[in-house]
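Archive entry. Fields below.
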Amino acid sequence: MKLQGKHYFDIFWILFFGGIMITAFGYRYKARLIPMVVTLPCLAFAIYRFIVDLRGKEEEGATGEDILLQGIKEKVEGVSLGFKQKSRMKLTAAEKRRRLLDISLWILIFLGLIFTVGFLYAIPIFTVAYMRIKRESWVLSVLCAAGLWVGVYLAFVVGTRSYLYEGLVIPLLRNQ
Amino acid sequence: MKAQKLIGLALAVLMIGAFAATVQAAPTQEDLDFYKGKLVTYIVATKPGGGYDAYGRLVGRYLQKYLPGSTVIIKNVPGAGHIIGANEVYLSKPDGLIIGTFNTGLIYSQIVGQEGIKFDLTKYSWIGKASSETRVILAGNKTTYQTIKDVLDSKDEIKVPASGVGSQDFNETSVLAIALPAKFKPIPGYGGNEGEMAILRGECQVIIGSYTGLMGFIKSKECRVLLQFGSEHKIPALANVPHISELSVSPRGKSLINLVNNIDMIGRLTAAPPGVPAGRLEVLRDAYKKAVTDPEILQEGAKLGLEFDPAYGDDVQKMIREAINQPEDNLKLLKEIIKIE
Amino acid sequence: MGKGITGGHAMSLWDGIWGGLAAATSWPACALMLLTIPIGLVIGIIPGMGGNMGLALLIPFTFGMQPIAGFAFLLGMHAVVHTGGSIPAILFDTPGTGPNAATCIEGFPMAQKGEAGRALGAALTSSMLGGVLGAIFMAMIIPVLRPLVLAFGPPEFFMMAIMGLAFISLMAGESLLKGLMAGGMGLIISFVGMDPQTGVVRFSYGMLGLMDGINIVTVVVGLFALAEVIDMGVKGGAIAHTESADVKGTGVMQGIKDCFTYWWLLLRCSIIGNIIGIIPGLGGDAAAFICYGHAVQTTKQRDQFGKGCVEGVIATDSAHNSKEGGALIPTLAFGVPGSSGMAILLGAFMILGVSPGREMFTKHLDLVFSMVWVLVFANIIAVMLCLPFAGKMAKITFIRTSVMIPFILVCGILGSYLTTSKIGDILITVIFGGVGYAMKKFDYARGPLILGIVLGRIAENALHVSLNLYGLMFLFRPITLILLIITLATVLFPVYKDRVKKRTARGGIG
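PREDICTED_STRUCTURE:
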């Protein structure tokens, strides 16, 4: 039986509720009462779902988002004038996985930038990098980056005088 | 001959003077110059927008005025009931460029040995405190308690709302219950201003909290103010309300009341990490003193509802030491009251 | 001490209302109000800037103002923050303020369907009407104010929270079990942190940053905005999955019309939101979510919920503005602020010379009503300012993802950080981004998770306090009992209806 994505997600739920339950065990009565009341049935549900998913056939793909898109299609067909659904390429599973990895990596890159050089540097660097690699023009990339940076600066540094996290590198450089 | 003696005397005087100067660690020009062009980070252990943040930003601006050439910025480091911020100040480089403000209630947390604490309150380089937090004991209008004596004499259990086990109001209620003594039973679970609603509904009879926090409730005349504490003397607004020092209590009660009072008197404190060079610490203390006594800061503070009742440097250190160094049986008692697992 | 406009003795209701109107429209009050309304909108639109930040910024300027002018200045801003906050919620799945998280649930799917204009029209209009209706309702119940507020204590809060949680069963969509699991996760998340009942720090695994618990905005931004970023990265295209905005039935006008089509829902949610605001103890965040659940409960098109149903937007947005009006009541009547924003306002009011309490509602009724009028005008003006731009704002949802992804990612993560000022929280946001994407993909409704977070702690705490004060007998208090019956009815009625349907189908009637 090939393990699909949804099986991994079922396992995630089991691990989550299981872990919480084990942790809650260690607390005194009053502190663990309600968490246990919540976790026990949920753990049971999670295990049940996992078993059902293992036994069931591979679904024909009627996930929530397909229902949404179906809803749009129905709406589209019901309307008379000039309303085309965006022609989308049919994405293969492999292509979807590659793109998922791609966007996940970009998010991690952004996080990494924030933790090293802080928001005020991370924001323009990331924006330009992302847009350029996704083949937007230099002009647009720099404009968007500048726009975001100016907006953030005016609203939060000047406006509310908030402290925007500076990352780990900048303070080290400052103290040289 | 005479000249030699005179020179010798002059030298001796100079040496004594110099020695005295270093002992007092008077700020030298070098120390003052150190701050020119430097960035001073003032850590506030709360999110932006609360009382500590307001005081921090106000004092920070005037600190900058009296540390010529410097820039003072506020860095908010919230979390874990001020513990994260206090930790960060404690562990920062003691170069005199990082200072911070946090809740004095952390004394309770340190006494009890709360997990996650990386500081020792007695070791900070204390700069000063900006105000006292006057606290009050109120009774709801629905109750029969007209004076504090009624409360102390009450044979029934008196329910007092508290935000949570281990919170400052919970700890104070428990300590006062033993110190006064009074039959206070703290009921945890009333966060924010919920406690006042509990008094209105009659679920609880008495509430203990900060005067400024309860001011709206007091002005609405839905309650009676029975006692004040937390500042050295009565405050003008509460001239007719007895001060805790007027009560007669046992010696143990007195030392416990001192603990509570000291914690509240050291309101809006400012400290630097342990080990700041004496000269720079003195510059900071000096600038702080000038900042919180500047007539303009008092004016601005009045606009924002922020009052000033400052104390500085060694006085604050003394108060902290007094509060933490409790006799052994008090420590045991406190650990029992604040039983957090 | 700011005296009442007309004098010293008790005022009639009529005098109060007209006196208040005169005050609210006087100079310089109305000018100041016009000045701060746009500020409130901008603060609401920018995720991470809360209304409290705005109040903190404006209060220093009120020194020396007359009370009426001061109220107009502050309330003008405060009343419209959530109105602005719905805009990024609909366009980018990023709530501008905490209560706007509920708007994301239906508002963003509408944008995905190309109906952003309609969603904005409905959101703005229902915000305005909700705020106005809430103010009117509040004025009407002033006579019975005191007994009403004091009738709700911890037992009633517990039951109301349970009732709200029962709505999870309605929001679960296709699979009830999956909805319950999501709700369960939400409840657990709400338990993270120091337990007020025992002082035990739960589920923090040694991390100090978790000792205060997990903020709902942190989770919502991850669960919705970041999950959408991942989804956009995979699918490409634009937020809206359709070609263009110029289609009949999707524009701003339609949204406005919807508010009148569903006027009964709007009215009910305004009242419920107002009541929740009046009774401190439930938390204002809950208002929008409870009304959302109520909308699911009473709608005729339940299968549309979760896919972009305009009723969901109307319910949430009328509630979050009406609750602000409600929160004024305990603040003015008892000096007990109904929310943290109200605590700041109360401080400002006292500096301006106003003392809360019974006198407010007898001698200074016109001051109270001047605030009510300011709320009414501010709501109307704010929406009048936004509606002309709503159509253009909706077009943003048609911009391609390579531009939108950096924009939403930056705003979302920055907003999450600014809400709590803890840099570690952006990690939580990203983790929930992953969880949210998986939930979307595998058909787990996200609404129940949010509902669990909002109500979990309140329910548990109220339960323990009730037991502490009254023992198990607390269940037999009259209002508690009524709420219990409503809850059971909510959960059992759909089951009963299904059974009846099955029986009739089998019986071959008709």
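CURATOR_NOTE: Chain C touches chain B through 52 residues (CB under 8 Å).
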